[in-house]
Amino acid sequence: MSTLRSMLGAAALASLALTLGACFGSANSEESRNPPDRPTEEENCEAKGKNDEIRLALAPACEGCHLTGNKPFFASLTSFESGLVYNEKYVKRGDPENSMLIQLLKGVAPGSYPQMPPGQPYSELIANGRVTLTIDKVEAWIRDLPAPPAELETPAPGEFTVRRLSAEEMVVSLMAQLGLTLEDFVSTSATDWRDSAYIVAGGRFFVWPGDWSPGISGQYISDSRTIERFEALGGGNSLVYRKKDANFGPSAGQALVQMSQAWCARAVDKSGNKAVLRHVTLADTSAKNPDAVQKNLRSLYLRMLGQPPSEAEAQALYTQVYLPLEAQNTRLAWIGTCAALVRHPLWITY
């Protein structure tokens, strides 16, 4: 799993290097001073106004993660203004102190990502010269931010592009989010089990690629449908020349529904696992401990989707999913709530 994360991280860094090179060029490069081909208006990095000036100045720190996906703020000026600048969730005109953008740059934002970019404080990026735009200048820009341009009122769906998570990304991320490991799905009785084809326990709805070493055992005691489920999610298999499916069709939907229910149940039942039951136990009900239930529901939403729920979203999840299932028992209520979040569009897409 760490190998896949490394590969994805390397791809993001490569994307950043390519985009920065294309836009900003090398300070000592003859080509950057005298480019052989004049860029088009869309490709030209000259700022088209104050908002664009801020976008281009923040880009070296931010666009590595925010050129694509469901938050492609730095894909274009329109994306920047529509998704970030005039989105009150991130920027409050005239009020930089209460703007999440400033809080993220300072590393004090609420939620699971208090700092952007993650891993290195923005102040260090200024100190090492990677960016030159100070937080004070961003605050001054927000303080004097003009009203949104009229063209932002016209929908531009092409500015925001999303893709579904690949089958590999679904397997790796869901295992991590739910606090599950290989030991929860495969036999560990042999001392060399990590180096041998995995013998998959039945009834656990394990999903795993067929071409990842050391493979899935063909023994009759091993769940033979492990690889089939992965392929139903859209995964490929180089050993049988099966291509990945970039679409999210009925087979992927059905596989994800079953996978979400089975894996969330395993996470809830796993002893000592706080991934789902972080602030409650199965003895806590909405009648006995309503505050803990609400706190856990919001915490689980944040963990699974990467952002806190609005009050309306939290209430809908509570009244439409949690409460009806709690009437049977709290175990089913938390399994159902967890599974509903796994099937949420924000979880499925990037």
List strands and helices in order, with pairings.
Blueprint: H1 2-23, H2 30-33, H3 50-62, H4 77-85, H5 100-106, H6 122-127, H7 135-143, H8 167-177, H9 226-232, H10 250-269, H11 290-305, H12 311-326, H13 330-342, H14 345-348
Structure description:
- By secondary structure, the protein is an all-alpha fold.
- The chain has 2 domains: 15-159, no CATH class; 167-348, no CATH class.
- The chain contains 14 helices and no strands.
- It has helices at 2-23, 30-33, 50-62, 77-85, 100-106, 122-127, 135-143, 167-177, 226-232, 250-269, 290-305, 311-326, 330-342, 345-348.
Instruction: Report how far the terminal alpha carbons are from each other.
Output: 18 Å
Low-confidence stretches: 1-22, 24-43
Give the structural class.
Answer: mainly alpha
- Major β-sheet profile: none
User: Percent range for helical residues?
Assistant: 40-55%
Got a strand count?
0
User: What is the average of the pLDDT values?
Assistant: 85
Shape category: globular
Radius of gyration: 23 Å
User: How big a fraction of the residues is strand?
Assistant: under 5%
Short note summarizing the structure:
This protein has 350 residues and is mainly alpha-helical. The protein contains 14 helices and no strands.
